Amino acid sequence: MKSQVSREVTADKGSILFITTLVVFLTPFMSASVNIALPSIGREFAADAVELSWVATSFILAAAIFLVPLGRIADIHGRRRVFTYGIFVYMLASLLSAMSNSALTLIAFRVVQGIGSAMIAGTSVAILTSVFPAGERGRALGINVAAVYSGLSLGPFLGGLLTQYLGWRSIFLINVPLGLVIIPLTFLKLKGEWAEARGEKFDLAGSAVYSLTLIAVMYGFTLLPDLAGAWLFLAGVLGVFVFIKWETATKSPVFDLTLFRHNVVFALSNVAALVNYSATAGVGFLLSLYLQYAKGLDPEGAGLVLVSQPIMMAIFSPLAGRLSDRIEPRIVASLGMAFTAIGLFMFVVLDASTSLAYIIASLVILGFGFALFSSPNTNAVMSSVERRYYGVASGTLATMRSIGQMLSMGIVMLILTLYVGRVEITPEFYPQFMASTRTAFTVFAVLCCGGIFASLARGKLR
């Protein structure tokens, strides 16, 4: 125990912040780049709208499945170890994705990439929270969140340039040289190890039930309104009850439900994150298709429009994080949720004649709202638990994000299926596509309004 403590104390906070910030930049950069490349991928593989959505969704689903189990493994065996392995897996999957010869193989490699992302996301915030004390934590988390949004900012722009001039495969290949820089830095600079739950057992059965439940719920949701989708969804709902019963009975649960039952701030902050991501994650996917199909922009032009949202996130996230160190995080986060709802409502009237200035203004408001929400909400979650739960708390929050993203894409896929069907989005289907887009934004805006109440109800942290 003494050696563990000394390694934590001598850890270089600056180096750790730099490395984790650099790594968490990559996954949102990739996601934003892939959204821009989807029409090009669809043309090469003759993929329909639902298959294209699976290129984005498979990554999110894999991340959601593995985040909590890997967060628990990191608490037991070491967060640095899982974090480092995650970088290797992510880089290898990027290389394999670039070599894909069909939509199916690309989706399969995106699953592997999602697992690597889960290993990174489930540990990076926990490492930062372990290293930085409460008075400095908001600033560190704000910088970390700003890196996420910087990745989202550069993703549409650089992804559009790469797709237009070098082809969509280049957005995956660019990760390889970046990885060759990051991996040596990790071994040289990331010297500490954090494993407050060392020696505790890993709940394999609970992890299996958890993973199968998520697969059934999410995959079933995307198959709706077919009967098979309804049965799978119901099986997933039943799995939730089985998982809760198992986790409350086992001695070393993979997901300590007492964090939800006895910690109101933790519970409602995670609910707020789930709602926020459910209402916003599909925006980039829909607007990428809208700008390239309905507005006729090339990938570079579409990326330049979409970059306005994450730029606002990158600018204001550190400020919001520092603000949450001084005043109640729920106040800042709730205000951010309100601005997000306003931005979403502005997209409800979207049609083929909507001006680019209006779209950019809506994205600016949406980005500002998300910046005000995200880092204060993360600060609230991580500051509401004991050190031994940092890995699980980090994994839980990242899981709320991934499940929210998955639900958001599930909503989009369901609406596209109902309005457009399993066909390529060609000009004769543009009216149906526009109707589906307006319906999706209406659902998202209403969801976000509900999230304001969850954010306000969480209670005081300090």
Give the helices and strands, then pairings.
Elements: H1 2-9, H2 13-45, H3 49-77, H4 79-98, H5 103-131, H6 134-166, H7 170-173, H8 175-189, H9 204-223, H10 227-249, H11 258-261, H12 264-280, H13 282-293, H14 299-306, H15 308-326, H16 329-346, H17 356-383, H18 390-419, H19 430-456
Helix pairs in contact: 2-3, 2-5, 2-6, 2-8, 2-13, 3-4, 3-5, 3-9, 3-18, 4-5, 4-8, 5-18, 6-14, 6-15, 6-17, 9-10, 9-18, 12-16, 12-17, 12-18, 12-19, 13-14, 13-19, 15-17, 16-17, 16-19, 18-19
Structural notes for this entry:
This protein is mostly helical and 462 residues long. The longest helix has 33 residues, at 13-45. It is built from 19 helices and no strands. Helix 3 runs antiparallel to helix 4 (79-98). The chain is globular. The chain folds into 2 domains: 12-202 and 252-456, Growth Hormone, Chain: A, CATH 1.20.1250; 203-251.
Question: Briefly, what is this?
Answer:
The chain has 19 helices and no strands.
List keywords for this structure.
462 residues; mainly alpha; Growth Hormone, Chain: A; 2 domains; 19 helices; 82% helix; 0% strand; globular; disordered N terminus
Could you state the order of secondary-structure elements as H and E? HHHHHHHHHHHHHHHHHHH
Distance between the termini: 30 Å
CATH class of the largest domain: Mainly Alpha
Dominant shape: globular
CA gyration radius, whole angstroms: 21 Å
Name given to the CATH homologous superfamily of the largest domain: MFS general substrate transporter like domains
Q: What is the architecture of the largest domain at the second tier of CATH?
A: Up-down Bundle
- Give the count of structural domains: 2
Number of E-state strands? 0
Could you say which structural class the secondary elements and strand pairing correspond to?
A: mainly alpha
CATH topology of the largest domain: Growth Hormone, Chain: A
Report the uncertain regions: 1-10
> What is the makeup of the main sheet?
none
Described by its quaternary structure, the protein is single chain
